[in-house]
Structures are given as C-alpha cells and as structure tokens.
Automatic annotation (TrEMBL):
Protein name: LysR family transcriptional regulator
Entries under PROSITE patterns matching the protein: HTH_LYSR
Domain HTH lysR-type as annotated: residue spans: 6-63
Transmembrane residue ranges: none
Key words, A-Z: DNA-binding, Transcription, Transcription regulation
Keyword Transmembrane helix: no
Gene3D superfamilies: Periplasmic binding protein-like II, Winged helix-like DNA-binding domain superfamily/Winged helix DNA-binding domain
C-alpha cells in the first residue's frame, strides 16, 4: 500500500465525515457527488485493508479505524494547505512590481493611458502609483521609494545631486495664460507683454510643482506680486479661474476641454515661451530595463499632447 500516495480528496472526505457526521454532508462540503465520494472511500478501504466507514440506511459513520485515519488525514491536509500557502507567497514575491511616481498634471492626464497599455501587455506586473508634485517625485526617486518618476519641472531640486539621476524625454507640453471668458484680457487687441503678466497677481500652483517652477523660471527677471491663491492641483486652479478669482497659467492638458467649450480663453503673451519637457527620471543603471523601461517606451510613443507637440522617440537612455 506504500507504492502510491493517497489522494488528498479521499482524506478530505474522511475528515468531512468526522466533521459533518455523514458521507453525504462530507461530499457536499468537498464539492463532489456522493456516489463518487462513496467509490473513493471504498477504493481507499481496499488499499488500506481495513474498513473506514460503518454504512447504514441512516448514513455513514467512521469505524474506530476510520477515526484514527481521519485524525492523521487532518494533519496531512493541514500540511498540504501550508504548502499551498507557501507556494502562493513565493509566487507573490516573484511577481514583478513597479512603483511609479508622477507629478499632478502628468498623473491626471497622461499616466492612466500609459499604465493601461503596460497592464495590457503585462497583466502580471503589480503597479503602484504615487502622485505628488515634481519636487516630491524627484525626492522619492532619489531615495529609492519609486522605481520611476514622471516630472514636469525643468530643473532638479537643489537639494539633490543631478548626477545620481537619469532622465529621458517622454513628451512635450505648453503652459498657457487662461482667464474666464468675461475677463477684460479677452477684449485686448494686442497680446500681453511679459512685464504685464509678471505684474499681475495670479492663481498659482504650490511651490515645488512643475507648473509653478516653469512659470517662476520664465519670469525670474521680473518683480512679481504675491499670488492671489496657491492651490495644490491644476483642477483647483481651473475651478478658481471659472469662479472669477483671477487669471492663471496652466498646462494645455488641464484646460483643453474648457477652452474648447469657450468657458476659458487663452491669452497670448508676446515673447514668452512656456513650452516644457515632460521627463521620466530614475536612479541606478543608465539603461532602464524591465517593466519600467517598457513604460517609458510606451510614454514616448503615446499620441501628441494638446499643444501639438509629439512625444520623443527612441529607447530610454
């Protein structure tokens, strides 16, 4: 009887008889038909050379020998369950994971499409997304808390060593001056000057955001008044503009729908370039491989931005 191992199902049936008081209930608990359960028990009895069940019109119960075998069967099933749990844990440990950080605008308007494409290609990859402003994403990547970051800021924070990070251009964006449709600037016959924009209190993003940094760098040579409001997301800034709080400078991604509907108007500024590069950043090896490298490739090959600028091409460097 030692030439083959017992089937775990028959052990489950024996334990089920002990737990539920009959073979019918044990079969239902195991998800098998009772005739099949009865045949399995009889076959096991023949292999062991001892009766395991007392069969009667009122049902089946364990013999004394069956009670002993059920006791040991319970231990075998417990060990088998532990084995399967351990195997599942090993699979989870081996499953590839990717932690992505993205600045607000990129996270809201671009990353969902990129991650969706990566999931379609690699459903086994466990993806975790963290959303912060660009400065915080730089810091998380530098600290190793994110495998890959996407940022809008044109500069690396001064607190970090740029040499420890690698980057690749994934897309291009443009910031625009936007106002509500009834704002006086919509009736101007000439574009704003840079000095006029710099002298105007604006609704702005919080310090550290890529949008705020791009604007501050563009107007660095001009004295500026305090902001009307500092807000933590492009959506909040957009809502404030629509409420009539004042003008703002936002990504074309953030205002595309409202500009198309006429709720917001773009105001031209003479001589001001607010184009910006959206980048992937990472630390470690210069060449980015695996799911992170493929995500960068997906981002670079995505459709052009609303500003009309296409994404970069090629492989991550």
């Amino acid at each position: 009887m030692t030439d083959t191992w017992p089937d775990l199902l028959v052990l489950q049936l024996l334990v089920g008889v002990d737990d539920h008081g009959g073979l019918g209930a044990a079969a239902r608990a195991a998800g098998v038909a009772q005739p099949n359960a009865s045949r399995a028990i009889k076959s096991f009895e023949r292999r062991l050379g001892t009766p395991l069940l007392v069969r009667s019109p009122r049902g089946s119960t364990l013999t004394p020998q069956g009670t002993v075998i059920a006791h040991w069967a319970r231990r075998v099933l417990t060990a088998a369950t532990e084995l399967l749990d351990a195997a599942a844990s090993l699979r989870a440990e081996q499953a590839p994971e990717l932690t992505v950080g993205a600045s607000m605008t990129i996270a809201e308007y671009l990353v969902p499409g990129w991650l969706g494409e990566l999931r379609r290609r690699h459903a086994e990859v466990q993806i975790h997304l963290q959303v912060h402003n660009s400065t915080q994403i730089f810091e998380l990547v530098a600290a190793g808390a994110c495998d890959l970051g996407f940022v809008e800021s044109p500069t690396v924070p001064s607190t970090l060593h740029a040499a420890t990070l690698h980057s690749a251009t994934v897309a291009h964006d443009r910031l625009v001056v936007v106002v509500r449709a009834d704002h006086p600037w919509t009736r101007r016959r000439r574009p704003l000057t840079v000095a006029e924009l710099a002298a105007t209190p604006l609704v702005v993003r919080e310090p550290g955001s890529g949008t705020r940094t791009t604007l501050d760098v563009a107007l660095i040579d001009h004295a500026r008044p305090a902001p009307l409001l500092e807000l933590g997301s492009s959506a909040a800034v957009r809502t404030s503009i629509l409420a009539g709080v004042g003008p703002a400078v936002l990504s074309t991604f953030a205002v595309e729908d409202q500009v198309r509907s006429g709720e917001l108007r773009v105001v031209d500024v003479d001589g001001l370039d607010l184009g910006r590069t959206l980048r992937a950043v990472w630390r470690g090896a210069r060449r980015l491989d695996g799911p992170a490298g493929e995500l960068v490739t997906i981002a670079r090959r995505a459709p052009a931005s609303p500003a009309g600028s296409g994404a970069g091409t090629g492989s991550p460097r």
